[in-house]
Amino acid sequence: MMANSENKELRRLAADIRIKALYCMAGAGGGHVGGAMSICDVLSVLYGKIMKYDSDRPDWEDRDRLVVSKGHSGPAVYAALALSGFFSMTWLDTLNQGGTNLPSHCDRIRTPGIDMSTGSLGQGISVACGMAAALRKEESSSRVYTILGDGELQEGQVWEAFQFLAHQKLNNMTVYIDNNKKQLDGFLDEVCEPFDLQKKVEGFGLKCKTVKGYDVDEVLQATQESMKEGGPRVIILDTVKGIGCSFAEEAQANHHMNFTKEDAERAEAEINRRYEAGIVKKEAAYE
Ligand SMILES: Cc1ncc(C[n+]2csc(CCOP(=O)(O)OP(=O)(O)O)c2C)c(N)n1
């Protein structure tokens, strides 16, 4: 329950990111709604409070970088970028259309504010580590943030990157794992058991913290800790795939869903109701 959150503006931003991302996908007839919804709260913390950026100069050298390694969650990132002033809201209506600047997967050439093209799972974290190493070499004060999917962890490359991150002691980097328990074709536990994620990450000598990934207060606090010497390098976000709107949250197969603007309208009303009630996750006390 976050009714007493000190970060009401971040909760509002997270709700707006959810709403805009849903309309963005609805305009294209649907999209990767499950994994987009589960990162809206961390995106709110990053764009609303943490990251250094200038939306008028997306290539500003001293900006912080974000690599969304689970690149299929593009619409949530586009919503956050539009709400942060990187481009017009009207762009959100062009998702995946011919000539669009917003393809469904993140593309650094087309979209202002996107630091790395992603979609081939596993690769983003490696590039993020390279960026962090290069920035440190240049004595830059910029930081690198990256968001991984829990299904994405099945790519062996991710663990090579963790090894590099640990060995290089890249303190200018924060890695989030969106632990929404599902991948494309079902629950991780059933497809390929991930075992104890926190212990696995710690096995590399990396400090790791698990927080409620839908609670902006917890995500903010852990992120601020990660910015300090000795803080957690990896933050596991305990989330739910599709979190925030019932139609996505309750569907068994919610990786990619077809839905309409009317569905988005109903979801918008629900997201606003949850916002007023101080919750994101569906709770028994609520409905
Ligand atoms: C290398 C690679 N293999 C397969 C895919 C197809 N694919 C796209 S999303 C996805 C599931 C990813 O699951 P997860 O990382 O948990 O994402 P989330 O549930 O957060 O959407 C898969 C297998 C891909 N994009 N890249």
From TrEMBL:
It comes from Hominibacterium faecale. Residues 12-266 form the Transketolase N-terminal domain. Belongs to the transketolase family. This is Transketolase. Gene3D superfamilies: 3.40.50.970. Keywords: Membrane, Thiamine pyrophosphate, Transmembrane, Transmembrane helix. It comes from the Bacteria. Coiled coil: none annotated. The keyword Nucleus does not apply. Its cofactor is thiamine diphosphate. The chain crosses the membrane at residues 21-47.
